[in-house]
Amino acid sequence: MISRMLFLPAAAILFSCPALAEDAEKEELERQQAFRTGLQEIVDDLNGGSSDEFIDSIDRRDIVDRFFGLRLIDQRIKKKFREDLVFQFVNIITSTFSDSKGEIKATLLGVESRGDRGRAVVRFDLPDLQFSYHEYDLRLDKKNRVIVIDWIDFLRGQRFTDEVGMTLIMAAPSKQAARKLIDFQNVRNSDLFQFIELLKAARDRKANRFIEIINGLDERLQRQRVVVLTGVQLTKRVRNRRMMRTALIQMAKYYPEEPLYSLMLLDYYFPARKYDDAFRALQRLYDRLDVEDAAMEARLSAAALVMGNPQDAIAFADKSLRLEPSLELAWWSTLRARAALPDYAGAVAALQRLEGEFGHSLGPEGLERDPGLSALLASDEYKAWLATRQ
């Protein structure tokens, strides 16, 4: 009510003074353009092999304050962190791109803003046709330069500052800090001790010890967000697929509706053939990102196809191509969806693009391992194309 009362006189002034309204609109458009231009420059710099623009867009003092926040971090850890920051800041920040394996390919999907605050979504193309997404909180400084405040990494399931802050807590977890991480009161001392030991095991990357402890925890502690997320991150870090599957099952049990965890849960849903769950997880993430994305459309196409819905699969694949004709996964989704319809001529057209633009060799020896393409390989359209290729 207060904000509404304050807004009405300001609006009345603007409407009564067209020149003021025009100036305000012009300034807003300039700020919106500054956000778009600034983010595109950062993305272009990343794609060029540099992180300088990204690093320069971060207010160091502000983000360090966010690392610490209201977290109960050991004072010695804080002191050491500040001392090392001059040497480690760049490495800490660029660790957010580690999933790209040294070759960043970023796509700016959308920027929205109001006043000096903004939001942007960036897709990162990863090896093996995988993808990650970052959602950035932004502001403009007095010179209309973009400042990156914080960001969510959907492949890690949390904000960057929360991830770093949690690392600082785990470096020397106290009882008080541990209690603050738990969402219920009256934790028994014995359970709190085990919870702290769990954090230490994660810190030291002792996955076997982590699993041993978690199996003996009270169920209320097992379902804690920090326990579930840390379990997935730890087992992924040590590259133990069996343990990671167990951790993902726990995540699916306690947080099936959480869009922050959708990308991680796909590593459980697809191998376990839980295709309906995978499709819904993708949709939840897509809704959360609130942008159009060719890669997401292509993955929805793949999910629809394995669910036995080739018409939906083609619709998703076609939209993926409209959004980004140069996306390789869009052509793979088109190939498989067209072959399943069947539309062999359309499938062969996709084959030609995959060979001509992406360097694949798609003769019978390259496709016969995919049972979904067996009918295509036997088709007249494929044989005719094969004859022209030889």
What's the helical proportion of residues? 55-70%
Mean pLDDT: 94
- What can be said about the biggest beta sheet? 5 strands, antiparallel
Task: Return the structural class.
Answer: alpha+beta
Note the main attributes of this structure.
five-stranded antiparallel β-sheet; single chain; alpha+beta; 390 residues; disordered N terminus
Topology diagram in text:
Blueprint (H helix, E strand, L loop, with lengths): L1 H15 L1 H30 L4 H5 L3 H9 L6 H20 L11 E9 L2 E10 L3 E11 L5 E8 L4 E2 H12 L3 H7 L7 H15 L3 H9 L3 H4 L2 H13 L3 H14 L7 H8 L5 H15 L4 H13 L3 H14 L4 H13 L3 H15 L5 H4 L6 H4 L2 H10 L1
Antiparallel strand pairs: 1-2, 2-3, 3-4, 4-5
Helix pairs in contact: 1-2, 4-6, 8-9, 9-11, 11-12, 12-13, 13-14, 14-15, 15-16, 15-17, 16-17, 17-18
Overview of the structural elements:
- With 390 residues, the protein is an alpha+beta fold.
- Helix content is 64%, strand content 10%.
- The chain is built from 21 helices and five strands.
- The chain has helices spanning 2-16, 18-47, 52-56, 60-68, 75-94, 160-171, 175-181, 189-203, 207-215, 219-222, 225-237, 241-254, 262-269, 275-289, 294-306, 310-323, 328-340, 344-358, 364-367, 374-377, 380-389, and strands spanning 106-114, 117-126, 130-140, 146-153, 158-159.
- It has a five-stranded antiparallel sheet.
- Strand 4 and strand 5 (158-159) form a beta hairpin.
- Helix 1 (2-16) packs across helix 2 (18-47) and helix 15 (294-306) packs antiparallel against helix 16 (310-323).
- The longest helix has 30 residues, at 18-47.
- It is globular, with a radius of gyration of 25 Å.
- It starts with a helix and ends with a helix.
- The relative contact order is 0.06.
- The model is unreliable at 1-7 (pLDDT under 50).
